[in-house]
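FAQ

Q: What does a record look like?
A: Structure on top, sequence underneath. For example:
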């Protein structure tokens, strides 16, 4: 659940960034959002690891499975999405 919240929040943040600014910033924006997600996940992992009574193995496996499932869903949606990459103006004669 925690991994889904982090990755869902990152996806919403990236969507907001790309709608507010130029779509040409997609790759740098995605890298910045991903780096921030990694930092937050490490901080959350350290906080959860400090809690007594939790089995680290099962928590780690749960986060790993949730992360892989989320990334697989994102990969599938991005591969099948029809996104305009560049908008080149046509010459006046071609219109």
């Amino acid at each position: 659940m925690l991994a889904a919240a982090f990755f869902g929040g990152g996806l919403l943040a990236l969507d907001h960034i790309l709608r507010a600014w130029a779509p040409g910033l997609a790759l740098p924006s995605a890298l910045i959002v991903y780096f921030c997600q990694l930092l937050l996940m490490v901080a959350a992992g350290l906080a959860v690891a400090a809690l007594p009574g939790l089995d680290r193995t099962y928590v780690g496996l749960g986060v790993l499975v949730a992360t892989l499932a989320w990334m697989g869903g994102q990969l599938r949606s991005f591969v099948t999405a029809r996104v305009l990459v560049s908008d080149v103006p046509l010459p006046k004669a071609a219109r």
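Q: Is there anything notable about this one?
A: The CA atoms of residues 7 and 37 lie 7 Å apart.
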